[in-house]
Amino acid sequence: GLKAGIVGLPNVGKSTLFNAITQAGAESANYPFCTIDPNVGVVEVPDERLDKLTELVKPQRKVPTAFEFVDIAGLVAGASKGEGLGNKFLAHIREVDAIVHVVRCFQDENITHVSGKVDPLSDIATINLELILADLETVERRLERARKNTKSGEKKYIQEVQVLERIREALYNDQPARSVELDDDEKLLVRDLHLITSKPVLYAANVSESEAANADGNPLVQAVRAYAESEGAEVVPISAKVEAEIAELDGEDKALFLEELGIKESGLDRLIKAAYKLLGLQTYFTAGEQEVRAWTIRKGTKAPQAAGVIHSDFERGFIRAEVVSYEDFVAAGSMNAVRERGQLRLEGKDYVVQDGDIMHFRFNV
Ligand code: GDP
Asked: Which of 26, 113, 184, 212 could make an S-S bridge to 42, C-beta 3.0–4.6 Å?
């Protein structure tokens, strides 16, 4: 499964947020692929479509899809030189597929800020610099090797040197590796470097409890938004403290508490949705009497590989898929009505599964 890593300077609210994530707790029995690790929290992806399908099909159970957040502690200024938990931190962050960068936008004299002042833009710059320095070291090392290899005259190495030089140039100019536009071949050449600054990022702006319902009134959040926009990144304002309280409630109590706060959707739910999108993920559904369930695929996944998410046998023995779009299913109201309307399509192995598709796979065993 794909993972989003939570990073940020000390005392910005990472642990508070991560505790809210683990408290909210997914039914881990449903997600055998998930890691059991104190630094990993499994979250279920809230999806109104799944709720609607459950209402229509009335199955015995409803199973949302899930993914993992990893708490990556230990980033301080100097991490790229091995300060603090530097090296361990960098090893962990290389393994994630997207980064949620928590920045402090709450004022509280009792909670020390590592640089003495609440200034999210300077915090972002500090962290980004460490990540850029770490990548720079990786790129330099590889570049040295690639240059030696060009002596063989192989075109592959010449191209590799060119790509690495472009990335190094960006890093030297304080720009992340993701700002360098690469075609698919070029991406392949550097993929195994796992460059940290090539991973997609979103900013979680942690505001105080009193601002939970109106975070955008906070000038620091506005500043983070303006900065993120220049990078093409998203911002999710959130009050980690409030989320920690919400996570202890369930169902009706949670709804009541949100209403009291004047919030439609919890910050955690917004964060989960934004991270899911950031990871380039989308959802298809299976809908049977036993179970209505959401499954995660990467955008562009074809039917057999989508089937493989359920079970490898489904992929190996794939014959075809019966497919109906979510909209058509809801308009028809039931699978029988979908059939009567002639809206159940038969699709083969080249079908690219669309977000919201309801799939039924036929396969040989
Ligand atoms: P981390 O070092 O980034 O993991 O930060 P923590 O989650 O441990 O938070 C550091 C301190 O800030 C803790 O005492 C938290 O209770 C506090 N804190 C976190 N979020 C908020 C907030 O929104 N408002 C206030 N007043 N304190 C917060």
From this structure: 26
Q: Give the atom of ligand 1 at the shortest distance from the alpha carbon of 208.
A: 23
Q: What radius of gyration do the chain's Cα atoms show?
A: 23
The model's pLDDT over 69-115, given as tens digits with 9 standing for 90+, comes to 999 876 766 766 766 556 777 888 999 999 999 999 998 777 777 77
Which CATH number characterizes residue 92's domain?
3.40.50.300
Q: Which of the listed residues 9, 11, 85, 107 should we mutate to test ligand 1's pocket, taking the one with most ligand atoms within 8 A of CB?
A: 11
Q: How many structural domains does the chain have? A: 3
Q: What single DSSP character describes residue 168?
A: H
In a domain, 121, yes or no: no
Contact residues for 99 (Cβ-Cβ < 8 A; gap 6+): 4, 5, 7, 93, 196, 199, 200, 201, 202
The pTM of this model reads: 0.88
Q: In the predicted model, what is the mean pLDDT of the chain?
A: 90
What would the pLDDT profile of 212-234 be if each residue is shown by its tens digit?
A: 888 999 999 999 999 999 988 99
